[in-house]
Amino acid sequence: MKKSMFFPFILLLCLTGCGPGSKSTSQISVSFAETVNTDKLDGRLLLMLSSNNEKEPRFQINDGLDTQLIFGMNVAGMTAGENVVFDDAVFGYPYASLANVPPGEYQVQALLHVYETFDLSTGHTVKLPMDNGEGQKWNRSPGNLYSKPFKITVTEAGVKDVNVVMDEIIPPIEEPVDTEWIKHIKVKSEKLSEFWGRDMYLGAHVLLPKGFNEHPEAQYPLMVFHGHFPSDFGGFSTSPPDPNMKPEYSGRFDMEGYNIVQAQESYDFYKRWNEPDFPRFLIIQIQHPTPYYDDSYAVNSASQGPYGDAITYELIPEIEKQFRGIGEGWSRFLYGGSTGGWEALAVQVKYPNEYNGCFAACPDPIDFRAYCLTNIYEDDNAYYYDSEHKKLEVPSHRDYLGQITSTQRQGNHLELVLGDKSRSGQQWDIWEATYSPQGDDGYPVRIWDKMTGDIDHKVAEYWKENYDLRYILERDWDKLGDDLKGKIHIYCGDMDNYYLNNAVYLMEDFLESTTEPYYGGEVAYGDRAEHCWNGDPDQPNAISRMRYNTMYVPKIMKRIAESAPKGADLKSWRYQ
User: Fold this and answer.
1) pLDDT tier at 13, thresholds 50, 70, 90
2) What pLDDT, on a 0 to 100 scale, did the predictor assign at position 253?
3) Helix, strand or coil, per DSSP, at residue 562
4) Long-range contacts for 3-10 (Cβ within 8 Å, ≥24 apart)?
5) What torsion, rounded to 10 degrees, do the Cα atoms 405, 65, 386, 453 define?
6) What is the pTM assigned to this prediction?
7) CB burial of residue 173 (10 Å; 0-12, 13-18, 19+)
8) How many angstroms separate the CA atoms of 212 and 502, rounded?
9) β-strands 150-154, 104-119: how paired?
10) 344: which of 188, 334, 380, 482 fits an S-S bond (Cβ 3.0–4.6 Å)?
11) What SS3 state is found at 153?
């Protein structure tokens, strides 16, 4: 979006209570030193202010009530020593302009999120941030430039004569090391490399079963644990918690010593994994970050390329080849929560015969009539409820009592500061990068105007036909039903923080009405359970979220017994 377009929106936001009235003319200049880079750099230049020094400002930007301040702009061919000026016209969050920042003392910091150039097979050239092993985290991505924080004072007249020099660079991330139990694999994807115009890789962390080396005759079923970018295989430890571990408080779960609980659960999983009655599986966690997000959503898309095909037909067969997987659809299972929940269900729907069951916990919206709290087909605006005389914002996050901490407008405006053209690396933008058609400029077409929230219903129809999972199932059930019966299992808390249960209700209405054939799966809800409830009625989220790798095993074993084809290998992997 051009800078000139920001002025009327800044006025609008201030009128709706974004902060103190405009009263200053501020300017802060940002540059980078030759000691960190001598190239001409493209990217998103970010300026951050924090009213506390508890952490660096770059680690205090979020969509919650404790967020600090951030402003952003694109730069092209920025050179060392070149001053780029942030003034009152540069868009920010949660204040739309530097002119609205209240007087006081702040820590100031700048960061350049570096973009690379991609020549796509579609004929478009785009500039995007390449993942560098961190899982698309702009504030931690290796190669990004940043400055050390220092104190400034904002007065009633604003702030001037402040120069911020980025003279630090985020270092590379070390690759995880193989262990007796956990192996790491990286595969060049020919499909993705062709799309992106450069070598692109998929990775996975593989948890081996007990007796893998002692039983070379065994071939194993495969469990695919979908979710956000995993730095390594999580939740598995061969050692009990350190008795001297210092307890840490979890604000999310309101639990003291949650780090100790996590460590104990990781050790308990290791012990369960080795019990004589536990089936011998391979479990994998996939690394498939894209230049838009920490993972691809595991489906083919116009702007991200054929990730679904690459994972299903390139990565998984290679894993099964190297680690003696059975390599047949009846022996593969999918599960995950949140993003991973959507992926588990979507992959099962898109590849019905390549997998034998999905367990989708708290999935991202699976019916776009309930795209969180927006019906993208009927609503005209995503940010405000329809009203002639009242302006009420649509919420985006609540707790189990219904207390709201953010709105859809606020979350989307934070993303717009972090990056335009769906490049923020955040939630709303990755849905767009996955579900939208590719625009004439090579970037995803907006589902709604990022500033105003006005919905583009033509884009909504594209989403409907290609990624609305409930609609696709209903439209194609006469073709998909026989291949999917018994495979769909969905779990969600009825007080999900992001209102994801609303779409699950709509999906359940369809599934339970199917008769030819009946879907034969399960949909269950957790009473007053938040994100991400995954089907355990006896344990709170804080505990059940760490038991994905064991809690669905009885259902998987039952499914194998009922559906494995005649002559299937049901014995070689059942040793003790």
Assistant:
1) very low
2) 86
3) helix
4) 3/73, 3/89, 3/90, 5/451, 6/89, 6/90, 6/91, 6/96, 7/89, 9/91, 9/96, 9/451, 9/452, 10/89, 10/91, 10/96, 10/97
5) -120
6) 0.93
7) middle
8) 43
9) antiparallel
10) 334
11) strand
pLDDT at 254: 85
Distance of CA 202 to the CA centre of its chain: 16
Ranges of each domain in the chain? 3-169, 182-365+469-491+540-563, 369-465
- Give the rounded distance of the alpha carbon of 4 from its chain centre: 32
| Least confident stretch, 58-62, 411-415, 526-530 | 526-530
CATH 2.60.40 fits 3-169, yes or no: yes
Q: Residue 10: what pLDDT? A: 38
Helix segments in 419-468, DSSP class H: 427-435, 457-467
Q: Give bridge partners of residue 104 from the DSSP assignment.
A: 154
CB count within 10 Å of CB 434 equals 29
Structure tokens at 535: 């089907």
**Cβ-contact 424, 416 below 8 angstroms:** yes
Residue 103: HSE in the Cβ half-sphere, 13 Å Cα cutoff: 6
The predicted structure's pLDDT at residue 24? 67
- Gap between the Cα atoms of 219 and 280, Å rounded: 9
Residue the block writes with tokens 């037909």 = 313
Radius of gyration of the chain (CA): 25
> What is the rounded distance in angstroms from the CA atom of residue 144 to the CA atom of residue 142?
6
Under the banding of pLDDT at 50, 70 and 90, the label for residue 16 is very low
Question: What is the average pLDDT across 407-430?
Answer: 98
The phi, psi pair for 481, rounded to 5°, reads -55, -50
- Give me 86's structure tokens: 């942030």
Residue 27 structure tokens:
């300017």
Of 428, 404, 401, 424, the closest CA to residue 339 belongs to 428
CATH 3.40.50 for the 182-365+469-491+540-563 domain, yes or no: yes
Report the amino acid identity of residue 450: K
pLDDT value at residue 23: 55
Sign of the C-alpha dihedral, residues 409, 227, 314, 346?
A: negative
Q: What integer pLDDT is reported at residue 541 of this predicted model?
A: 86
Element (H, E) at 76: strand 69-78
